[in-house]
Design a protein that fits this description.
The N and C termini lie far apart (59 Å). This protein is mainly α and 196 residues long. Helix content is 70%, strand content 0%. Helix 2 (20-42) packs across helix 4 (72-91), helix 4 packs across helix 8 and helix 6 (124-142) crosses helix 9 (173-195). The protein has 9 helices and no strands.
């Protein structure tokens, strides 16, 4: 059977029946997006790997409770988000430090985490400016309250709709809009402070 040709709901049904390739297919589809979401929240690759793995374990154990009328990705991101928020609250981590953190990242990891706009027509100077802006934005996002950070990341970095963000965060749509509005306002202040 070609599991890659099936939609998420079909793969979940097969996983619930104990088909090992179905679990592997779900992991293949969502391992990178889940890691990306968690990494952008905790800013530490090793910790993000651990939390992402824990999220998959929780999700796979709870597959029977998945409601197929919702997107599987939203359900999975909700589990990963809740797990990460719980971790941040328990540990009260300082998730970003412009001058380094207790969990040093390699240059490769730092480059992967940048929010940048790639334009093939940009000059080397423009490219450098865009990279620096991306670094400042990433740092500023890391200083937001966890709720604002999650909403901004899900909407503007991961590209989810407001409705999907509300579903993932398990809050009303109006609350998501408030989180994003306040998050943007704080980002403007933080970025203005860095620029001066």
């Amino acid at each position: 059977m070609d599991y890659a040709a099936l939609d998420d709901r079909e793969v979940v049904i097969l996983a619930c029946k104990g088909r090992e390739p179905a679990f592997r297919e779900l992991l293949t589809r969502y391992e990178k997006p889940v890691f990306s979401l968690v990494f952008r929240m905790v800013r530490d690759a090793t910790l993000a790997e651990d939390l992402a793995q824990e999220a998959f374990v929780k999700a796979f154990h709870a597959l029977g409770s998945y409601d197929p009328k919702y997107k599987f990705s939203s359900w999975l991101f909700k589990i990963a988000n809740n797990l990460t928020i719980d971790h941040l609250r328990k540990k009260q981590l300082d998730t970003v430090s412009i001058h380094g953190s207790p969990h040093a990242r390699s240059n490769e990891e730092a480059e992967e985490s940048q929010i940048t706009v790639t334009d093939t027509s940009e000059t080397p100077e423009e490219y450098t400016e865009n990279r620096q802006l991306g670094t400042r934005i990433e740092a500023a996002i890391g200083h937001l309250r966890p709720e604002y950070r999650t909403a901004v990341l899900l909407r503007h970095v991961e590209g989810h709709s407001y409705e999907e963000v509300a579903e993932i965060m398990e809050v009303p749509l109006g609350t998501v809009k408030t989180f994003i509005h306040r998050g943007r306002s704080e980002l403007k202040e933080l970025l203005a402070g860095v620029a001066t």
